[in-house]
Each structure stands twice: as C-alpha cells, then as structure tokens.
Write a structure and sequence with these properties.
alpha/beta; Rossmann fold; DNA polymerase, domain 1; 2 domains; 6-stranded parallel beta sheet; 9 helices; globular
Length: about 230
C-alpha cells in the first residue's frame, strides 16, 4: 500500500483559474497589456508566477528584452521588456486576491478524507508562491489536513525539478516508490516521474489528456475518487 501522496494545487486540488486571471489581468493592465480570456490562462500557468507573466506579455506582443539589459532577463532573450513591473504588480495583487473565487474540485474533499482514514501522508507541491500556497490550502481544507505544504520559495527549484518533492519525502521518511503524485499538467507528470513516484494525471484540471500522456502519466483519471484504485 502506498504511504504518501503529493498533490499539485492549481487545477488539481483547487479550481483557481479565476483568481489567477483576475490578478494577472490587473497586473498586466498596469503596463498596457491584456486582458486575456480563461482559455489562454490555462496555458500561461503551471510553471510559476514569473513564467505566467512572461507568457502573457509575449502573447500580448510585448517586445523581448536584450539579455544584456537586465538581471531578470533570461539568457535566451525571452524576457519581455515590461516583465519586472508587471511581475511585481502581480505579486502584490495576488497577496490580497489569491482566494478570489477559488474552490475545491468536486470529490477532492472526499478523497482527502479517505486518504487520511487510511493513514497516508498528504502533501501539496505547487509553483504558486509559498505564502499564498499555504493560505489557499488552509483556507480550503483547514490547517490540519495536509502534513506538508511546499510552494515556490527562494533556494528551491520549481517544478518540473523534483527538488521540492524530494524535500517532502525526506521529511516523511518515505521512499518515492511508495508515493502517488497527482497533477493536471505536463509539468506535473515530469515532476512525478523525475521524483520516482507513481504519477496520476487529472482530467478535471487545466490541460487535456494528450499533454498528460505525452509527458509520461502512469494513469489518467477523470474523478478524484479514482485515486483510491491505486493505493494498494
């Protein structure tokens, strides 16, 4: 029987697309870009707040910054000129509105209760900023539901690097092969595979089946309670 389960947050535990869109649209407006529709945000998100803003600005036609011009510019020249201002605006807005219209997906609360009843250790691993990750998880599920919560923080590589998952399992004292990993994006599938966990793709989230398959999902499910089929 599996001993631990690691969950992605946005698009897996929480339906948070409207929160992300609301905050990003406001931030992008400060530099003259956006708004974007929900379908576009499904593909802007998944790799941290900085990449969210970069992708939105580039989609809006912002010019790319010369790599020699700024410390936050990527070496391949894919950083938009208005990134720094828009990113800082997003971080400030998101602190106040990270719970805007956020709710758990149907079946998640029941799944968590069943897993806790089985004595399985529960963790969240997200590329959302750490403070907001904790707030969202605790507001939705309470302070005692998860044994570990890991968001984006300085000094820890974001997904798909498995570093955050490694840290979680070291704290639990549980091996990757005794772990399930549930997420809704290709980034999550790569993270789970790199960690060595059994990786489950969630169809109720932000991406489609083909992305999950292409990135190595061990199984793909359409409802959270189907996770229980893979515990034993």
């Amino acid at each position: 029987m599996k001993k631990a389960m690691i969950f992605d947050l946005d698009g897996t535990l929480s339906d948070s697309i409207h929160s992300i869109k609301y905050c990003a649209d406001q931030a992008l407006a400060t530099v003259g870009f956006g708004p974007f529709d929900v379908e576009q945000y499904y593909y802007f998100i998944g790799d941290g707040a900085a990449n969210l803003i970069k992708r939105a600005l580039l989609a809006g036609g912002d010019e790319k910054q010369d790599p020699a011009d700024g410390k936050n510019c990527t070496t391949d020249g894919n950083t938009p000129k208005h990134f720094e201002v828009a990113y800082q605006a997003y971080r400030e807005i998101f602190k106040d509105y990270c719970m805007y219209q956020v709710k758990p997906y149907d079946g998640i609360v029941e799944l968590l209760a069943a897993l806790k009843e089985l004595g399985i250790k529960l963790a969240v691993l997200s590329n959302k900023p750490h403070a907001e990750t904790i707030r969202v998880v605790e507001d939705l599920f309470g302070k005692d539901c998860f044994d570990e919560i890991q968001g984006q923080m300085e000094g820890v590589a974001i997904k798909p690097n498995p570093e955050g998952g490694v840290r979680i399992l070291e704290k639990f004292g549980i091996a990757p092969e005794d772990t399930l990993y549930l997420g809704d994006t290709g980034t999550d599938m790569l993270t789970g595979k790199a960690l060595g966990a059994f990786t489950i793709g969630a169809l109720w989230g932000f991406r489609k089946r083909d992305e999950l398959e292409e990135h190595g999902a061990d199984v793909i499910i359409g409802h959270p309670l189907e996770v229980l089929n893979y515990i034993g």
